[in-house]
Structures are given as structure tokens and as C-alpha cells.
Amino acid sequence: MDKIAVYGASGFTGRLVVAELLRRGVPLVAAGRDGERLRQAAGGRPGAEVRVAGAGDPAALAAAFDGCAAVINCVAPFEEFGEPVLRAAVSVGCHYVDTTGEQTYLKRVFDTFGEPARRRGVTVVPALADDGGPGDLIAHLTAEALGPGADLAVLTVADLRRPGGVSRGTARTALANRRLWGGDGGLHWADGAWRAGTVARTETVPAPGAGAEPEAGELKVTAFALPGIVTVPRHVRARRVEAVMRAEVAPLFGALTEEVVAALPEGPDAGTRAAARWLMAAYATAADGRRAQGSVTGTDGYGLTAVIAVEGALRLVTGEVPPGVLAPAQAFDPADFLTALEPHGVRWSVLTPA
Ligand SMILES: NC(=O)c1ccc[n+]([C@@H]2O[C@H](COP(=O)([O-])OP(=O)(O)OC[C@H]3O[C@@H](n4cnc5c(N)ncnc54)[C@H](OP(=O)(O)O)[C@@H]3O)[C@@H](O)[C@H]2O)c1
Description:
This is Saccharopine dehydrogenase. The chain folds into 2 domains: about 5-130 and about 305-330, Rossmann fold (3-Layer(aba) Sandwich); about 130-300 and about 345-350, Dihydrodipicolinate Reductase, domain 2. Helices cover about 40% and strands about 25% of the residues. It is built from 14 helices and 16 strands. The chain is globular and about 55 Å long. NADP nicotinamide-adenine-dinucleotide phosphate binds near residues 13, 74, 81, 131 and 266.
């Protein structure tokens, strides 16, 4: 079987990706900047090779990925270190997935890597984490429930997880992006174009009735820069695409400081991860007023991110996915992909309320 390279294999998410590849019996290259940390993460495991390559060294990156069928990039933040890894993967003909949730990085990947990826015959599917993957797939299925190619007035992607269980790398990424973009580098989609600003008219959404403690009624939400804003308009026709987060969670990201980030553990421990439920939902309203809503939920967002990224990379290697940069729902059959996650405790549904 072809090897898969994990860049940032020594990080919190990277180590989970390494473990998932080993669990599935996939030979791998653990790549990153620090040989000692990489050896701690993967050294000595049968089927795992360590290759050292700094993000600023294109030749070393290309050598690290040489002979691999795909690269799973788990670096942080992607705004700073994502592109050289992607460029090196494409240059040596590797398919590529990553775990980013960063809108501006994601938009640049779609804007600049499509042609190089097509020329090299490789497929790039960024944002294959527990929000960008399931959020994009359930948005597609929810829109489709109103008819294939339905003309939507609005499609809202909602991250409805409760507070808690964020890794230091995720927090550092959120803080770095806020600093880089001066508070609001977010995007929204309106009238056929991406527009600046994290904007949503949606203030409440119906509780999906899924999750550890199913809720009823309406949930308060706040506009939030989710990756779905960049990916969903590529396969759903909607006048507006909005992204929102549970109202009590969104301000926690805004309150991050260097001190708070430094004090966080590298990642939530196994008990916290097992207890932490994530919940992505989508709400579609057709131009004629018909509505649909979908949700996808599971536990252990970081463990599931590893499962999702590995599943995606293996589908690129073994499947018939066209080359280029694709949203998850363009690269994979959305229902089939979500169903493949069910053995990991993922549950999903789409409803069209009467
Ligand atoms: N959106 C989602 O749902 C979701 C879910 C999971 C993860 N993520 C994203 O995935 C990324 C990883 O998160 P994490 O918690 O695993 O972070 P982490 O533990 O901090 O790991 C970051 C990785 O990046 C590497 N790195 C940092 N600076 C580097 C540099 N200058 N050159 C080369 N490598 C460098 C680190 O190498 P060292 O080990 O040598 O320090 C480490 O391997 C984050 O961007 C996070 O937001 C997103």
C-alpha cells in the first residue's frame, strides 16, 4: 500500500492522525520540523518512517513527501505554514487534505492552487476537520432535500457544540488569525460573491434535537468565521450563505490572549474528549419558503478529525476523484462519507419539516 505523509505529525492532531493511519494499517511518513518530537510521536512503530523538514525549506518538504500518495497537513496556524506544505505536496504529485478551519487561508487555496493541482493530476481537499468536513457535507444534503440544484434564499451552517475541549494549537490558530486580520478577517457569501465581514442575519436556529442532551426550541447563535462559507457556495446555489456558532461559545474565541493560550494543555485529555460532543447543523430556506434542516453529531472532535482526514485521504488515493481543489461535498459522495463515519459514533439526519 502507498505511504501517506502526515505533516505536523508531532502536534496534537497530527499524533491522532498517525494513530488512525496505524489503526488502519496504512504505512506513513511522520513529517515535521523537529526530529526528536517526531520520533516520540511515531518513531519505532512498524510502518512509520520519520522525515524532518521545516516549513520554510521547500526542497526538504518535497523530499519528505516524495514517494507518498497523499499528504495530511496538521500544521498550525495554516495562515503561516500551510501553503509551503501544500505547494510541496502538489510539486511531487501527492494528493492533499488538511485540518484547517481558517477562512482566508482556505480561500487562497481555492483561488491559487486549482490550476497547479489539475496540471499535476492531484486532488486537494482542505478543511477536512470536524467542522469543515461534516459542516460542508450536511449543508449539501440539506440543500439537496429541497430538490437538486434548488434555488435557496439562505443556507446557514451552524457549529452548535457546547463550550470546552479546545487544543492549544486551535486556540493559537484562532488568536493568530484575529491578530492578522485585525479582529474580523471573516467572509460571508451574498448575491453570488464572497464579501468581507463575518456577517449573519440568523440570530436563532431551531435546536436539531440531536446531541448528548437533546435540546428543543430555538438556540441563540452568533456569526462566526466557519470554513463552510468558503466551501459551501461551490456546490450549493444560495443567495446568502451564513455561518454561525452557539452564542455562548463564540465570545470565548474573541477572549483568547497569549497568556490564556500558553496556559492551555496541548489538548483535551482522553476523558474530556470522549465526553465532548460536537454538533454541526445546516438550515436551508428555498426562495419559495420551503425549509430543510440537517445535523451531524458525534463525540471527540479531535479524534473524529483524524478519522475524517484519514478517510478523505484514502478516498483520494483509492477513488476516482477529479484533480483540482475541491470542497468535501464536491470530492466525496456526502451521504456515503457521513455513513462511513457511523462506526465511529457519528449520527446524521436531514428533515424537511411540514
Ligand atoms: N477546525 C477544526 O475543526 C480543527 C480540528 C482539529 C485541528 N484543527 C487545526 O489543526 C491544526 C493543528 O492543531 P493542533 O491542536 O494539533 O496544534 P499543535 O498541537 O500546536 O500542532 C501544530 C503542529 O504544527 C507544527 N508547527 C508549528 N509551527 C511550525 C513551524 N514553524 N514549522 C513547521 N511546523 C510547525 C508543530 O510542530 P512541533 O510539534 O515541532 O511544535 C505541530 O506539529 C490547527 O490549525 C487547528 O486549528 C482544526
